[in-house]
Amino acid sequence: MEADHRCLLNERNQITDCDLSEQIKAVTKESHVQAENTKVMLAFQRGQLTLQQYKLLLCSLYKIYEALEEELDRNSSHDGVAPIYFPQELARLESIKKDLEHFYGADWKEQLTVPAATLRYAQRLREIGRKHPEYLVAHAYTRYLGDLSGGQVLGRIAQKSLGLKNGEGLSFFSFPAVSSPNLFKQLYRSRMNSITLTELQREGVLQEAVRAFNFNIQVFEELQNLLSTSEETELRQRHKTHSPKMSDAG
Ligand code: HEM
Predict the structure, then answer these.
(1) How much is the pTM?
(2) Looking at CB atoms within 10 Å, which of 45, 111, 160, 178 has the fewest?
């Protein structure tokens, strides 16, 4: 059951009187709509994602999960991390490596394309891992609960639209240690709600969740720009080779 209505706004327009899992969902609601409506995500939902887009997305996800999971591992016994630390069930880095190897071959690491927005996102993850491990829950929530929600639908769309067989190149979407994503999300939310936070820390976590969504949106937008530019260059190149100018004709 949706429980957003239990969150009340106080005189300073802050959300109060509800669990962290409800607050975080409420404060990121608009950002979620924005993320869903980026060009890359719209193309994804419509089954129009190209293999090139998917490969670039995997490169960025590699750098993001590398930073996220290294910081979660390093802080796994921190009070704000331990309750939501589920490497067995959730860790994505090895799956992404498998997918990258499938598409790029054994030397995938040398072929990674990492846009600036992705680097900024990874830097922020490492910074909060050092300075504010209690904010990691905001990032883990944004990525993992997203992967277990819309991500499951996106995986099935990608399989069809990219014509990938036997789950090859799609490990990222598969969570073999999670038999029911819905039940697992419930468990994850209750673990989030068990974290003890001061009011200031709670506000910090909520702000960080909005930031986490914004980082994702910026990554998608940069990927889109990269592709538009490379498509334009390709079109120009093709135009040059296929339609010689009068002067070229000799
Ligand atoms: C939840 C769809 C993109 C993060 C969900 C849910 C759906 C969904 C259907 C379940 C809502 C519910 O249980 O109430 C989609 C679609 C997307 C997309 C179609 C794009 C094509 C994203 C992105 C992120 C994200 C890019 C973040 C990077 C989340 C999170 C939740 C969620 C954190 C859990 C919300 C909660 O229960 O607290 N999404 N999503 N989603 N999504 Fe997305």
Answers:
(1) 0.89
(2) 160
